Structure formats: structure tokens, C-alpha cells
Amino acid sequence: MQQIDFKRGNVRETVILWDSVNEPAAHIATRKWAKEENQRFGGRYLSDAETGRYPASDNHADWLGAPSLKELTNRLTNGWSDGVDRLMKLAVAELEMTSIRRRRVRGDQGDEIDMQAVWRGDLSRAWTRTRRQQRTGGTRSVTLICDVAGNCGMGADAMFWRGASVLRVAEALTEAGYNVGIYAGAATKHIDATGKCNACQLVEIKATDAPLDLSSLAALTCMPGYFRTSLFAGIVAAADHFGEEADYSLGRMDEDGLKRGAKKLGMDNVFIQPAVNSQQAAKEWIDQIVAAIQAPAAAEEL
């Protein structure tokens, strides 16, 4: 993993870029802990007996997005097709983007000749060649950060729209010929007992040159389970990194933390998702991203 520490006033912050989606949970067993209680505390979120003790409602389905930790693990391992079916219904008509795939164009020069055009005297359109259509600005590579964090009162249905909106944008961009990278991100503040430590966690869940596996990505981003197990353990590890005991509530969402983290890591042409908690908010964010990517100022963070 890559970790960067810095200070803002009297607040200590750390940015963690995990090497894989499995690393935060594995870190519980492998790191050298400053506080033994932190190791026990972090491990509690990875056991079925403990995940049910911190519910947003009275059932695992609302807390994890799956009826049990076993089913969550199954979906994270094998994908979540039902989640894909649901997210694909989101704002399809509003995701029409200018394709940059290669298209055939006609002219007076090219690779192939149309003899019928020659015979009818249309020499200006007799030749055809393929070229990639240019869009209005920005680059062909786009990075999306999906905010998977949510405070304890936020249920699975609200958090579903985080992943759904990111994956629908990624699917449309991929179809249009863009290279799309996706990160899951969680920024939290007041993570320790002193209330003066913050943490931003990021993990690459799709490289720009990797295929778009919607089923696997839906399991990671459209359910709160990954955040409320593995990244909860990561929050505890971040507090321990500062030599402090983790706050029992693990702090609260940090609205600007992902922007600070991405900047510290030097991430370019990145679009950071705000706290999308409803279908309407998801549609509005999709509209903003589509407009920004097609505009000359596409590289500006949202």
C-alpha cells in the first residue's frame, strides 16, 4: 500500500491507497499494532457475529446490502447480477455520449475506392478511410472515484445509488471508446479517541485498461458491505497508525476528504462523486459528469 501523512492545523490526516480490495482486511492480521485493542476492534467488523451489532436498522440487509456476511462475501467473490439489472435501468436515455471509436469517412483521398462514386462523377466522395472521431476536449482516459462511505444511519437502498451512478457513467464512457478507471473511496474524520485524526482510503477497483465487469463492481460499490467490513477495518488501522485508539463510532464522513486525498496522490483528470443518496441525486450527478466530460473544461474536478 501507499500511505501519505500530512497536517491541516492541529488535525493529522493520512491518505491510504490500498494495493487491492482484499488488503484492508488482510492488514488486520499482518500489521504491527500500536494498540492491541485496535486489532481486536478492527477484527470485529470482519466477523458475522459483530457486523450485526452496529446496524443502520434491525437487519443485515440494510446494514450490509446483503442478508448476511456470508452472502456479502459470495457477491464480492462471484459478482452481483441483480444489482447490475437494477443499475442498468438508471437514466439510460441521458447517457448518450459522442463516440470516439473509429468511423468510416468519405473524401477525395483514402484507403478504399468506391467505383460507383467514380462512375457517377462524385470524385470528392469516392475514397473512404477510417479515423477516430475527436471529441470537444479533455483526454480519452477518465478516472471516477465512487464514494462508498456512509454514516451509520444511512441504509443500503440510499447507498446503492453511489455505485449505480458511477457504473452507468463508466458503462456509457466505455461504449463511447473512453478508457475508464474506477476507485472506491472512503474519507472519514474524527476517527480516533482524540477527534483530531482523519483518514482517506482509496482502492483501485478497475484499471483504465481493464474490462468493465459490472457484476463484480456492483458488489463493491452498490452495497455498503465492503465499506462496513473491510474499510471499517482500514479506519481502525489508520487510527492505530497515529498511535491512537480508534473512536468507537469510527468518526463521520468527511465531505472534502476524497478531494484532498486524490490531490495528495497526484491523480489527474479525476471526477469525484459527491454524497449521492437517492435516484434523483444519481441522475443529477450523471448529467453533470456527462456535460463536463464533453466540455473543454472536462479536467476540472466535480
List keywords for this structure.
302 residues; alpha/beta; 2 domains; seven-stranded mixed sheet; 12 helices; 10 strands; disordered C terminus
Q: Which consecutive residue ranges, at least 5 long each, have pLDDT under 50? A: 132-138, 296-301
Cα(first) to Cα(last) distance is 26 Å
| SSE topology string | EEHHHHHHEEHEEHEEHHEHEH
Mean pLDDT, nearest integer?
Answer: 84
How many structural domains in the coordinates? Answer: 2
Structural class: alpha/beta
Tell me about this structure:
With 302 residues, the chain is of the alpha/beta class. It folds into two domains: 2-95 and 136-294, no CATH class; 102-132, no CATH class. Helices cover 38% and strands 21% of the residues. It has helices at residues 23-30, 36-44, 48-51, 60-64, 69-78, 81-87, 115-119, 156-175, 214-221, 227-241, 257-264, 279-294, and strands at residues 2-8, 11-18, 102-107, 112-113, 127-132, 141-147, 179-189, 197-206, 252-253, 270-272. The strands form two sheets. Strands 1, 2, 6, 7, 8, 9 and 10 form a seven-stranded mixed beta sheet that branches. The longest helix is centred in the middle third of the chain and has 20 residues, at 156-175. It is elongated, with a radius of gyration of 23 Å. 40% of the residues are buried. The model is unreliable at 132-138 and 296-301 (pLDDT under 50).
Short description:
This protein is an alpha/beta fold and 302 residues long. The chain contains 12 helices and 10 strands.
